[in-house]
Amino acid sequence: MRAKREYRDRSETQVAVLDALAGRRDEGMTVFELRSRVDADIDELEDALADLKADGLIEATDEDERTVIVPEDHAIGQYDPEEEESLLDRLRSWLGR
Fold first, then answer.
1. Per residue in 42-53, is it b (16+ CB within 10 Å) or e — as a string?
2. pLDDT above 60 for 82
3. Is pTM, for the whole model, over 0.90?
């Protein structure tokens, strides 16, 4: 499971966070766990988490004195990178987005 296609045009860090969370969608991840899986400094990670939360793509809950971040169901789905790209996807790749 990975972030749905419609959310893959976000920043590289945001997509990496969604992809990491997709693998642990039931139990979620702490910020420390995300830092170990996402290649970004803490400021980039915090900005990405704030943007994803503001857009309703993740949820943060307090569990046993720690904050656990889980993806919203509508943000995660089947994504096959080998699947034929749409024209829009090819344009985005060509433009470097």
1. eebbeebbebbe
2. no
3. no
